[in-house]
Write a structure and sequence with these properties.
Two copies of one chain form a homodimer.
Chain A: H1 8-19, H2 26-38, E1 42-43, H3 44-54, H4 60-72, E2 76-80, E3 88-92, E4 99-103, E5 109-112, H5 116-128, E6 131-142, H6 144-158, E7 162-164, E8 173-179, H7 183-191, E9 199-205, E10 212-216, E11 219-223, H8 225-228, E12 231-235
Parallel strand pairs in A: 4-6
Antiparallel strand pairs in A: 1-3, 2-3, 4-5, 7-12, 8-9, 8-12, 9-10, 10-11
Chain A binds a DNA duplex (25 and 25 nucleotides) through residues 23-25, 27-28, 43-45, 57-62, 64-66, 68, 87.
Chain lengths: 238, 238
Amino acid sequence: MLAVERKPTSNNIRDLLKRNALRSTPQRVLLLSLIQSSGKHLDADQLYELARRRDDKIGRATVYRNLKRLVAAGVLRQRFFEEPPIRSYYEMATPAEHYHFTCLRCGKIIEFACPEIEEVGQRLYHIHGIVVSHSNVTLSGYCATCLREIEKGVEDQVGEKVISLAKLSPGQSGVIVYVGGEGRLRRRFMEMGLIKGEKITVERLAPLGDPVEFLVKGYHLSLRQNEATLIQVELSTL
Amino acid sequence: MLAVERKPTSNNIRDLLKRNALRSTPQRVLLLSLIQSSGKHLDADQLYELARRRDDKIGRATVYRNLKRLVAAGVLRQRFFEEPPIRSYYEMATPAEHYHFTCLRCGKIIEFACPEIEEVGQRLYHIHGIVVSHSNVTLSGYCATCLREIEKGVEDQVGEKVISLAKLSPGQSGVIVYVGGEGRLRRRFMEMGLIKGEKITVERLAPLGDPVEFLVKGYHLSLRQNEATLIQVELSTL
DNA sequence: TTAAGTGCAAAAGATTTGCAGATCG
DNA sequence: CGATCTGCAAATCTTTTGCACTTAA
């Protein structure tokens, strides 16, 4: 039988600290193990509370100081999500750069890669002589689950069959019963005349269902499928 | 002679408020005119201080409350830059989406468009069923001016002719005297062996000077030109 | 042994809230 | 006039700092 590593995580963390020329104290090991094992994005206060359960002597200042130092050393990464409460959250610094989507309704966080951002850096360099060394991309909107629930919720309120504009087939008509989205996107919907009570007819879908072309108030308009998902329509039966 | 508008800005702002179903109070008009005319990104406290110069009775709470309400109404946009001090800054909500680059050295902010982000939204929709309604892209690094000054600064310290790796010609060699960049990028430089004192030879440049291919410790490596800008080299005279 | 890290308490910031009085529409 | 907004002060909440004590290397 092979030697079993008793505290693999703890040892790995001690190594990680040493590699980064940081003293390995029980408090640091504890913090890192909490972050590493949680898999979630935790803020300083949540980490303090979690840490206290394992070490009731640990001080807030220690948590804050260490988070700061670990970020400075590149062991941790500090992230900012703009949805209230606006705080910073911490995650292990992984070699592969990734960014975050947060659901405005349930708060779920989904990580994704965004290689396109490299091109933006290149463009900025060529245009402005700027060198980009840090990038942050944070998107927000609605996750698939919440979209379904929004649809359901609108349906319950209206008392009729409600479906998202993205799911209508060409030729189908309906009345807009709910316009989702936030800020800019919502404004754009308004400017396009996508307002509650308006009649809407889908004209055609591009190959992948993207974009969706439709008719509102006599205007031929089109939306990307993901945008169309935010418009809830009550189907008209001919 | 045409009637001269005496307070065009003020009237426009009152209109803007009315259009958004917000009462137009002197405090709101003042805040918006400060933001509109400054052209900079100001945080709540800076706005409070500026506002006090024109209305010494205005209260902090009024500033905070109004910023919040104006953001909620879509009149203002709240931005977050991750370089300390970490605060939120306010700007007028413009119809065209744009993002920000901040210089880590001088704090300058450069705005840019990033149409690529639309594609990311599409991808997330197709992969995860997510609908993106807000996006935030914040980049940071060094502006052209600061890059020149860094180069100059290193030169003064080293006392020799210093040039950025991006500016070397094929065949030229030198010794690395300074490695810039932050966090991830800096680590990547280290992993590549781009360390102070190391000898480096440029092998060739791609058509646009991008990427730069070079030789360090016998390894053939390449960097994008913007990345290469962060490495300062002291030229070896043959 | 000693530089660095820790806990505690106090300080410093940033933002919010309760409330009486003022103001917009 | 009534709902909304304002100014003020106090309250909250997050983060930092000073200092005496402890600990990792």
